[in-house]
Design goal:
This protein is of the alpha/beta class. It has a single domain, classed as 3-Layer(aba) Sandwich (Adenylosuccinate Synthetase, Chain A, domain 1), CATH 3.40.440.10. It is built from eleven helices and 14 strands. A hairpin with a 5-residue loop joins strand 3 and strand 4. Helix 3 packs across helix 5. It binds inosinic acid. The site of inosinic acid has 22 residues, from helix 5.
Length: about 325
């Protein structure tokens, strides 16, 4: 056993949350841990009863009732967002937070909203993450262990992650996307406030690299971007609407800019940085509507088959999961 590190290849919003939920249920993972920057991320999964789940702080692995969910010490914690998710998803007794996580305070959110550079130029989610990280780096942040409301959840998550991964499966859910990485994007300042690679995710949760079983890189078949910065092959908004493939941000509700195809060179760069051993190819129904809701490998159409071959060539890793629609079960598992 060991850890599966789930990261996004491009600009995020590729369905990492759904992939994490699928693996938690399929493999009955005892532990899922959130890596990544913090609450600027938004994961959404539609359960089979039609309930739409939206999460910003906790990994979606909780959808499996036997999975404990944790937040690694490198991830920023907003106590209000955390409390909301614990209550909404009824997770009391199943949540662990590292006492060393830096806190996002209301003042951080206000400061980002008032910052024209972040709000207008960068197109930040203005959820306080960058401002809180700056305070952490300057060593004046409050940490989770300083907040009495978080006391019931506190533990050494790094120690727990390594302990569990020695005998069982740990799912590490990254956030944002590789190309939004602060120090690996060529598009600074159109980045988030930390790196979003597999190595960064391991660091966020304190995972010993020897315990990594797989790096599962999620590739969105038609990439999207929210906020500013270049998006190769960007489709005009009218075409996105005409094709019925419009998407809106989980955190901000902003329409996502959408590309008509993958940029093969950028995908290769993401593969070089992450070293994936497995690929999940998501939003296949946006490439070919005939794939919508397919759950069987026999339903893979010629355009999607061609895309799988291309992605496997460009990343050097096999496609093991195909996402075919918004529902949790709209998935073809090729494992
Ligand atoms: P910030 O990290 O909220 O300051 O946002 C900086 C940039 O990263 C903006 O372009 C955001 O739209 C983008 N961003 C931050 N988090 C996410 C995410 O989870 N998915 C996609 N884009 C994100």
């Amino acid at each position: 056993m060991g850890a599966v590190v789930i990261v996004d290849a491009l600009w995020g919003d590729s369905g990492k949350g759904k992939v994490c939920a699928h693996l938690a249920v399929r493999d009955k993972a005892p532990l899922a841990v959130r890596a990544g920057v913090g609450t600027n991320a938004g994961a959404s999964v539609t359960l089979d009863d039609g309930t739409l789940v939206r999460a910003r702080q906790l990994p979606t692995g909780w959808i499996n009732p036997g999975t404990t969910v944790a937040v690694g010490s490198g991830v920023l914690v907003d106590p209000t967002v955390l409390a909301g998710e614990v209550a909404r998803f009824d997770l009391d007794g199943r949540v662990l937070v590292d006492g060393r996580c830096a806190l996002i305070e209301p003042g951080h959110v206000e400061a980002e909203r008032a910052d024209a550079h972040l709000a207008a130029t960068v197109g930040s989610t203005c959820t306080g993450n960058g401002a809180a990280r700056a305070d952490f780096v300057l060593r004046r942040a409050r940490q989770a262990r300083d907040e009495p409301a978080l006391a019931p959840y506190l533990t050494d998550v790094a120690r727990h992650v390594n302990d569990v991964a020695r005998d069982g499966l740990v799912l590490v859910e990254g956030s944002q996307g590789t190309l939004l990485s602060l120090a690996f994007s060529d598009e600074y300042p159109y980045t988030t406030s930390g790196n979003c690679t597999a190595a960064a995710a391991m660091d966020d949760v304190g995972l010993n690299w020897r315990l990594v079983q797989d790096v599962l890189m999620v590739v969105k078949a038609l990439p999207t971007r929210v906020g500013e910065g270049p998006l190769p092959y960007e489709l005009p908004e009218e075409e996105v609407l005409r094709r019925g493939i419009a998407e809106y941000g989980v955190v901000t509700g902003r329409p996502r800019r959408k590309a008509g195809r993958l940029d093969r060179e950028l995908l290769g760069y993401a593969a070089m940085l992450n070293g994936p051993t497995q690929i999940a190819l998501t939003f296949c129904d946006h490439v070919d509507p005939a794939m919508r809701g397919a759950r069987d490998a026999g339903a893979i159409t010629a355009p999607v088959r061609a895309l799988i071959e291309q992605v496997e060539h460009d990343t050097g890793a096999p496609v093991v999961l195909l996402d075919t629609g918004p529902g949790l079960s709209d998935m073809i598992d090729l494992r």
